[in-house]
Amino acid sequence: MITVNTPYLKDKVIGLGCPSTKIKVVPVGINLKLYTPKKLPKILPFKDPIYLISVGRLIELKGHEYGLRVVKILVNKGFNIKYNIIGTGELFEYLNNLIIELKLQEHVKLLGARSQEYIIDKLDSSHIFLMLSLKDKEGREEAQGLVTAEAQAMGLPILGFRSGGVPYTINHDTGILVEQKNIEDLTNAIINCIKKSRYVQNYEFKGKHMGKH
Question: What angle do CA 78, 95, 108 make, to 5 degrees?
Answer without folding.
Answer: 35
